[in-house]
Design goal:
12 helices, UDP-n-acetylglucosamine1-carboxyvinyl-transferase, Chain, alpha/beta, four-stranded mixed sheet, 406 residues, globular, 2 domains
């Protein structure tokens, strides 16, 4: 469904954010491996986590994880160690996203995996069995989901796993989140420098309550940054989060948003804003890139954002998508440096009757909603893509005064 979005000048309200899908998908797998009969509380209600649930419930046959990258990577590792024969497939976009690095790593641990169509991509044929384990080496520059997938099944291999990460490590908070949750469930992973060791062990069944999603909070930071007046309460968040994207609070301070931490919620208000060049390394928080880029450009803030190399292999090539859609609005972004986006104020002719393409990417739809402050009735195509992580996003906007024409 295509929609037109118009933003209010004043944003006041209390928003119940969705629960973290990053935590949910990890806890769903750990919970399954622990043979816990009780489900964790507050598991995210979104496409990604629903795909994860379905994959973990499989007995045999075809497992389709749709467009869910996390569920695909985690399911591949899980099915590799689960006795039986499976075919793992996904959406057309998922079939274009590389999986070879994870397949090769699992093969080194003893997995039996074959490509059914194109080398390095879904669909896959998997013959699940007990894995040998052992020592493997992986680039730290690959998706943290590959690393987390390997770590979470490691206690159930015969020898355990010693994983050495080479080069610079991206999305480190997601790896630390995985290690923290594994430890909570009774495993004994240790990370020293770039080496992670996971001995043989078992997860213990335990109750777990998932916290709200800081990634989802980022869009509200963008709205507060652009509104003339704002006072927004986001429930389910605090300053003790294990989510790396909680860094959004400090990243938005230079863009004019103050964060007040309370017991079980945060309050966002406007603060002093000085328009000066903005520079950020988003190596640890790449999922915040689109929100920060749109918000900065809408505030006429020149920027250099680095650490974006993983954006090329997300739901879409997010760097190209940002460049394309920003040009429609009359802004020229520079992506000539690998892993970096720069805007020095360069403009071009704005397209008439702009339609924002979302590329089957939930974060494109939600981040460009921020642009509706400068472009009333901004048309956003395929708005339903938000169901991947934040199904109530458009309804929440209506609650605080946004106008949405469906």
């Amino acid at each position: 469904m295509d929609i037109k979005v118009t933003a209010p000048s004043v944003v006041h309200g209390e928003i119940r954010l969705p629960f973290s899908k990053s935590i949910s998908n990890r806890v769903l797998l750990l919970n399954k491996l622990s043979k816990n009969r009780l489900m964790p509380e507050n598991v995210a209600v979104c496409d990604d986590s629903e795909m994860m649930r379905c994959a973990l419930a499989t007995q045999s046959g075809v497992v389709n994880t749709g467009a869910a990258g996390t569920a695909t990577r985690f399911s591949l590792a899980y099915l590799s160690m689960l006795p039986g024969e499976y075919e793992l497939t996904g959406s057309e976009r998922m079939k274009q996203r590389p999986i070879k690095i994870l397949v090769e790593a699992l093969r080194k641990l003893g997995a039996d995996i074959e490509y059914l169509e194109n080398e390095g991509y879904l669909p896959l044929k998997i013959k699940g069995k007990e894995l040998q384990g052992g020592e493997i080496e992986l680039s730290g520059g690959v998706s943290s989901q590959y690393i987390s997938a390997l770590l979470m099944i490691a206690p159930y291999t015969r020898q355990g796993v010693k994983l050495t990460l080479t080069g610079d490590i991206i999305s480190l908070p997601y790896i630390k989140m995985t290690i923290s949750l594994m430890s909570l469930y009774g495993a004994a992973p240790q990370m020293k420098g770039n080496v992670i060791t996971v001995p043989v062990g078992r997860y213990n069944p335990l109750p777990y309550k998932v916290e709200a999603d800081w990634s989802a909070a980022s869009y509200w930071y963008g709205f507060v940054a652009l509104a003339k007046e704002a006072d927004v309460i986001l429930t389910g968040l605090d300053n003790r989060s294990i989510q790396g994207d909680s860094k959004v609070a400090s990243l938005f301070t230079p863009l004019g948003v103050a964060t007040e931490y309370n017991d079980g919620f945060v309050r966002l208000r406007k603060c002093n804003f000085v328009n000066k060049p903005y520079e950020a390394d988003l190596t640890d928080t790449p999922d915040l890139a689109q929100t920060l880029v749109v918000a900065a450009v809408m505030k006429d803030v020149h920027f250099k954002m680095s650490g974006l190399q993983s954006l090329r292999i997300k739901e879409t090539d997010r760097i190209s998508a940002l460049v394309n859609e920003m040009r429609k609005l009359g802004f020229v972004l520079d992506d000539s440096i690998p892993g970096t986006l720069i805007w020095n104020g360069e403009r071009c002719e704005e397209m008439q009757n702009v339609e924002i393409d979302t590329y089957d990417d939930h974060r494109m739809a939600m981040s460009f909603a921020i642009a509706s402050y400068l472009y009333p009735k901004l048309k956003i195509k395929s708005s339903e893509v938000v169901t991947k992580s934040y199904p109530t996003f458009w309804d929440d906007l209506l609650k605080v005064g946004f106008e949405i024409e469906r």
